[in-house]
Amino acid sequence: MNDYENAIEIKDLTKKYDGFTLDKVSFNVPKGSIMGFIGQNGAGKTTTINAILNIVKKDEGEIKLLGLDHEKDEYDAKKQIAAVFDELPFDDRLNAITIDKVLREVFEEWSSETFFNYLDRFSLPRKKKFGKFSKGMKMKLQIASALSHNAKLLIMDEATTGLDPVVRNEILDIFLEYLQNEDHSILMSSHITSDLDKVADSVTFIDKGKVLISGYKDDILYSHGILKCTKDDYKDIAPEDIVSARLNDFGAEIMVSDKAECSRKYSGAVIDPATLEDIMLFYVNRSKKEWR
Amino acid sequence: MKGLIYREFYLSRKTVVYMLLAYIIFVLMITMIIISTYAGNLAKNNDSADTRDYLLSQMYIYAGLIAMAGCTYGHNDLIEKDYKSRWQLYSYTLPVPEKKIILSKLTVRITLLLSGFVLAIIAEFIFSAAGKVPASMEHFKNIFVMMCVYGAMCISDIPYLLIMKTQNKGAAFVMIFFVPLTAAIIYGAYKFEKFCSAEAARLYPDMESDAGMMKVAMPYLTKWRDIFLWAGPFILIGAIMIAYFWGIKELKRRRY
Q1: pTM given for the model
Q2: CATH code at A60?
Q3: A192 pLDDT band (50/70/90 cuts)?
Q4: Among A104, A246, B157, B185, which has the minimal tally of Cβ within 10 Å of its Cβ?
């Protein structure tokens, strides 16, 4: 068994496409934790995940999965990894029984018992063709198959997108249950930040192919804040303290990245806690500095 | 790999069953017509023996084509469907190397092709039995050549579709080469027919023109068939090897 501290280690990952570059992306997903990977559409989340899974070839950089090189030890690593995509990757003509027959020959540690237990738990029919499944059922099936081969790392690309809140909550509960085993880790890309507010231990925020923030969620939320002030007061705020500012007719809401320091510096100002959504929104607009 | 093979068979099975039904209906129909030429309504016609000879000399080819194309047809469009359903993408997340993915596809395609070949042989036996003649070794040779040529095309289709992703695109691209090739073949056939016709008039002036032409053409056709009989297995094995290595290379390119 290989020993590792981080389930995923990415260093200077670069992938160039015409019109888009994933630019020296680096972050780690600590073992036993769930990392939220956030960013707007086209930010580079899927490209990063595809590079991690070696679905796209990276141009530069280093990726380690469960302590193994993602190219050299690809198949050893993939035995212990499960990927979940935003859409079910199984043919509509298949059903759960056939998928069990297929995947038990693919994964050494596949457990039909676990798989069918998940199906029962999710109330998914065994013989019904996937073409007749709803989106929620398809996602549950994908998660059931991902969790049935004793995977140590779950990589999910927009897995909860398009699902109703009830199904999303049910799925998030399953993830928390999965993380009860401290060897298990999850990387979850999403632009639904409320899901990550609930379950993520750490967060990496990517925009235009570059990592803007990466770290423990609580640290990020603790350090960031929204400073609310009048237009006159806004002029007194030092530019280096401002990530970006949302202006309105009455004043300004300013995202600050060092809440404690700003509280000391601008003692009269009100600094509200920021959510991941606020942070994403203000960082995305950072190049404009001021926006409405 | 067993799981991948199972999946490919499972997804091809319905089309194979439908085409098998078409094969059974065709073979039954032709068998009944052959029997009818000596024991049914067709026996009353003066040319019933000619009809029977014609059916026995031609229909095994159609039965063979239905059998071989039918068996492999359901598997032909699976790659396109795998792209659509995103299985192709998902397969990269599985602990399965590219060579096993290609091997599973080749195993299924070759098995289906061989099943088609066996059905074609069975059809020849059935037609011969119905016509009360021994099964023809020449016919078996022709079926074998057919299997080698069709099989080579059918197997090369695997890496080709991995690149093209859809059958429409694949077919459109292949037309670029297929149209001039077909024109060349048609022109060649026309020239050959002219040659045979001229030779028949010179060598066999007393024979009917068709019979004379056939007499001139047969040695050439048999010679070419015999060349293919030797070359066919090499072509087929070559196609399998190319499909294997090209397929692995194509999968490694990760077209995403």
Answers
A1: 0.86
A2: 3.40.50.300
A3: confident
A4: B185
